[in-house]
Every structure is written in C-alpha cells, then in structure tokens.
Write a structure and sequence with these properties.
By secondary structure, the protein is α/β, with parallel strands linked by helices. It has two domains: 2-60 and 136-325, no CATH class; 371-464, no CATH class. Helices cover 70% and strands 7% of the residues. The strands form two sheets. A five-stranded mixed sheet has the order 2-3-5-4-6. A two-stranded parallel ribbon has the order 1-7. Helix 2 runs parallel beside helix 8 and helix 16 (397-442) runs antiparallel to helix 17 (448-462). The chain is elongated, with a radius of gyration of 33 Å.
C-alpha cells in the first residue's frame, strides 16, 4: 500500500508539473485566461485522481535493488564476503528501504495535521462571521439581484456585511453561498465603486469558484509535501481573478476606468492589517497579478476565447491525461548481470540468484512469454472472420482455406524468428557469464572444477 501511494504521488506530481508548465505558457500575459484557468484546474484534478493507465518511464537503479535482494535472501546460504563494491552499492539501497518505512507515516501525519489545522480555522472563522456579520442593507440586496440577473446567476447568494476586518469574499461551507462585504469598505466607497466590487464577487459565484476552493483544499491535505500544489494554487487564483474581471466586463460593460478604480480602492483597503481567512474563501485579490489585471481591464479590445472551443480542448486534455500514471520499470538485464557477478565470485549460489531474479520479476510485473496464446487468439479471430465472409458469400471456402493457411504460415515464421532472437540472447547471456567465470578462475577465486559446475548449472537454468 505504501509503495502504491508513493508511486501515485510521484506519478501525479510529474504529470501535474507538466500540466502546470503548459498552463503557465498558455496564461502568459493573460492572453488566454479562461483556458489557462481550466488547465490549472486540471492540475488539481490530476493530483487527486489515481492513475488508471501507467506508462513505464522511471527506471529503478539496478545495483541498489540487487544489493538489497542479496542481503535479504542470501541469509540461509553463504553470506557475503569482504566485497567493497557490494558494500558501496548497498548503502543507497539501505537508505531507500529505511526511507520507505518512514515516508508513509510521515505523509499520513502531515495530512492529518493539515486537515485538523484547516478544520479548526474553518470553525473559528465561521463563528467569527456568525458573531460579527449581519444581512446587508436593502440597497445592497437590490443591487445584488440586478447584477446577478445580468450575469446569468439564477440563485442569489446571501449578502452579508461584517464589522470584522476582512476582505470582500465568497464563503461557502455547505448550504447557501454567502458574499461577505466589510462595512468599513462600504463606508469609504461611494455607490458606483462598491457596485463593481459586489459584481466581482458575484462573478465568483457565477463561475462556482467556491467549489474549486474545496478541491484545492483536498489537494493540499493529500499532497502537502508537493510544491506543485502551492505553485498551482497561486496561479489558479490569479487566472480566476482575471476571468472574473473579464466576466464582469463582458456582461455588465462598465467603464474600464471606473471598474479599475473600484478594484484599486478595494486593494488599498486590503493594505491595512486584515484577518486572513481560511483557504476556502475566494477573496477579491487572492491571486495577485494586479498589474496584469488592470492592463486587461483598460484594454479596448480584451482577449476573449470561445467558451465551447475551450471546453472541448480541456475535455480532450482531461480524457488523455487524467487516467495516465508513470510506472517504475525495473532494469532486469542489469540486475541479472549483477547477480551473475555475485555467483561468479562465490558470494551466492546459482539457485539463490535464480530465486532472487524470479521474485524481482514477479514484483515488478514482468510478464511471461505469451506468444503461443496470442497466436492462438489471432488465428481464432481470423478463422471467425473468414467464416463470416464465406457465409455472406463474399469469398469461397477454398479462398478462405488458403487465407487461413497463409495466416498460420505467417504466425509460424514470426514465432520462429522470435525463438531465434531469444536463442541469440541466451547465447550472449551465457558467453557473458562464461567470461566472468573465467575471470574468477584466473583471479584464483574459484577452482576449474567449481567453474565447470557453475557453467553446467547455468546452462540448465537458461535451457541451453
């Protein structure tokens, strides 16, 4: 289980990093903010999505794995001699095994701590809002209804004003969505200015960004150790703010200077010491990128993207990327060579090496030769298709028989070529083992009689 979790974390971190780089390139200079936001959102979805289809990319170092296998499995037989090379190779492997023991509990403990701390903050913040907030004045409520209709928002969120020193935000912990506007900000702004601040927060609700906050939270709890999470969170929120500005401009058509001035006033208000809300809050400037936002707002022709095209692109990307994972691939040939060296130097028996190699292949998911089964399945499929053609009257029985014979002949030729290739591989493998045995005899590490016995045993094992 711990190996699976570590593999999933590493796989999702690598793929999420690749998605993040793509999102960063797409969102450069806010030319495609909607697409960039969707890609950053896809980063979080990938982080919490277990891989279904794995691609073997990462190769596990052979020497370290071999040293571990020898140390673990050779106890009943001859123990290792004073081989400096084996000791050096065993060090990184021993450290890795030690880390594998401690990484899962550390990971779990960190997730528990993040979960508990975040829930405590949510409870405290909810109590603070309940204590220091009230339903907004009728003027604010009426303006919210008008703005919501123009934004295409069907359900009007609860509008609250608070005496707490907070930023304008959207807050949701289940039930009805709430928009919180600080009273101090309303007192220092005229109606035209707070009108656009309210519109910006309603745009967050229209886009359902409050749901994204909980996806972020889940990813942070599960992968608190992954820097990709925090990097993606910052950029996702930045693109989110730009998208909200774009939605307000496209639906409400404010004068750019008035809208930018309203946001600037809200940001200046935030320059004062304010209470930092939990991560589930969508604040008016949670992502930064103010200069970029203002440039987009005052631009006469802001860049906008076709929503349907964006949805199709992101959907295709999600279908391709989300099920993928990166699997580790064992370097079996290097491991086998290392075991052969151990046998040649008398550090373990041939039987022990065979058991180790079989166990490693089994653990690594190595498949046995399935050529006969595949050939049989292929011929059955050909026979079925030819039978259907004969029944449909498209070919005669004689033609079907000839085609089937041709398929059988082709299969036999390919299997024979595969056997020849495997025979050549075994020959090269035997020659390499023989060279190591001769070197061991010349170095005085074994007698000629012992060398002959090892070579005979090796021949039997590889079927020569």
């Amino acid at each position: 289980m711990s190996d699976f979790l570590f593999q999933m974390g590493l796989s999702n971190a690598c793929l999420s990093l690749a998605l993040g780089i793509v999102a960063m390139v797409v969102g450069a200079k806010a030319r495609r903010p909607q697409l960039a936001h969707m890609l950053w959102l896809l980063v979080f979805i990938k982080l919490v999505t277990p891989p279904i289809v794995t691609i073997p990319i990462v190769t596990i170092p052979a020497q370290g794995e071999t040293a571990v296998a020898i140390n673990d499995h050779s106890r009943p037989g001859p123990q290792l001699t004073n081989s400096r090379q084996f000791d050096v190779d065993a060090q990184p492997s021993a450290a890795w095994n030690h880390a594998r023991v401690w990484l899962p509990p550390i990971w779990l403990l960190g997730s528990v701590v993040v979960f508990v701390v975040s829930m405590v903050r949510v409870c405290r913040f909810s109590r603070l809002l309940a204590k220091k907030s009230e339903v907004a004045p009728q003027e604010l409520q009426t303006a919210a209804v008008k703005i919501a209709r123009r934004l295409g928002l069907n359900k009007i969120p609860t509008i609250l004003t608070t005496s707490a020193n907070l930023s304008p935000m959207v807050w949701w912990t289940g039930g009805k969505v709430r928009i919180v506007i600080p009273t101090a900000l309303l007192d220092q702004m005229d109606a035209h200015e707070w009108h656009w601040v309210l519109a910006h927060e309603l745009a967050h609700v229209r886009r359902r960004d409050y749901l994204v906050r909980w996806l972020e939270w889940l990813a942070c709890v599960l992968f608190w150790w992954n820097p990709v999470v925090w990097w993606a969170q910052h950029n996702l929120r930045a693109m989110e703010e730009i998208c909200c500005d774009e939605l307000v401009i496209s639906c409400l058509s404010p004068k750019p200077k008035y809208y930018a001035k309203s946001l600037l006033s809200a940001v200046e208000f935030l320059a004062r010491p304010v209470l930092r809300p939990p991560a589930m809050a969508s604040e008016i400037n949670s992502g930064g990128f103010l200069e970029r936002r203002f440039k987009m707002i005052v631009s006469e022709t802001p860049k906008r993207s076709n929503s349907r095209w964006l949805q199709i692109c992101v959907l295709l990307c999600a279908v391709v990327v989300l099920p993928l994972g990166i699997a580790s691939a064992q370097d079996y040939e290097a491991v086998e060579r290392r075991l052969g060296e151990g046998v040649a130097e008398g550090e373990l028996t041939l039987k022990q090496a065979s058991v180790m190699m079989d166990a490693l292949k089994k653990a690594g998911g190595a498949k046995k030769d399935q050529d006969p089964d595949r050939a049989e399945a292929y011929l059955m499929k050909v026979k079925k298709e030819l039978g259907e053609l004969v029944e449909a009257g498209r070919i005669s029985k004689e033609d079907a028989a000839k085609r089937y014979e041709g398929a059988v002949k082709g299969i036999k030729e390919r299997m024979a070529a595969g056997r020849r290739q495997r025979g050549d591989d075994k020959q090269r493998e035997y020659e390499g083992f023989e060279r190591r045995i001769k070197a061991a005899v010349e170095a005085g590490k074994m007698t000629r009689e012992q060398a002959r016995e090892k070579l005979e045993d090796y021949k039997k094992r590889i079927g020569r």
